[in-house]
Amino acid sequence: MEIMVFRNPLEETIIFNDRGFNPVSRNERTYEQVSKEDLMRINELCVIGKFAEANKLTITSSRGQRGGEGSRHPGYIMSIFIPAQGEVQDYSRTCNFRTGEITVIRNKKQI
């Protein structure tokens, strides 16, 4: 199960996905180990804002072979609309990519 969260704090869009939503492929996908140097370069490119270049290196460094999961599509979409009561301030949303946990900080307090 995965979710994608985007938009702004007063108009959230959350897309739910699950590997069960994807058609099964008859071919198994394989990958070679990505080198430490490539991982460091991908990180450096992201830090300086060269996301397209980082994405290209990510794709080419994994050397994907054969098959895959077939067509991918999102599952369910949830929209949350909150009436504005003034300007949004002191808001930050982060994602811990190691755990997948999304954290929202508002008014210097974690919620």
SSE layout:
Elements: E1 2-8, E2 11-17, H1 36-47, H2 51-62, E3 77-81, E4 91-96, E5 101-106, E6 109-110
Antiparallel strand pairs: 1-2, 2-3, 4-5, 5-6
Structure description:
By secondary structure, the chain is α+β, with helices and mostly antiparallel strands. The protein folds into two domains: 1-30 and 69-111, no CATH class; 33-64, no CATH class. 22% of the residues lie in helices and 30% in strands. It contains two helices and six strands, in the order E-E-H-H-E-E-E-E. The strands form two sheets. A three-stranded antiparallel beta sheet has the order 1-2-3, with no helix packed on it. A three-stranded antiparallel beta sheet has the order 4-5-6, with no helix packed on it. Helix 1 (36-47) runs antiparallel to helix 2 (51-62). It is flat and about 50 Å long. The model is unreliable at 66-70 (pLDDT under 50).
Classify the beta-strand content into a percent band. Answer: 25-35%
Largest sheet: 3 strands, antiparallel
Average pLDDT, rounded to a whole number, is 78
Q: Number of domains in the coordinates?
A: 2
CA radius of gyration is: 18 Å
Extract low-pLDDT stretches. 66-70
DSSP summary: helix tally = 2
Backbone shape: flat
* Count of DSSP strands: 6
Adjacency order of strands in the biggest sheet: 1-2-3
- Order of helices and strands, N to C? EEHHEEEE
How far apart, in Å, are the first and last alpha carbons?
Answer: 22 Å
Structural class: alpha+beta
| Helix content estimate | 10-25%
What's this model, at a glance?
The chain is of the alpha+beta class and 111 residues long. It contains two helices and six strands, in the order ββααββββ. It has two domains: 1-30 and 69-111, no CATH class; 33-64, no CATH class.
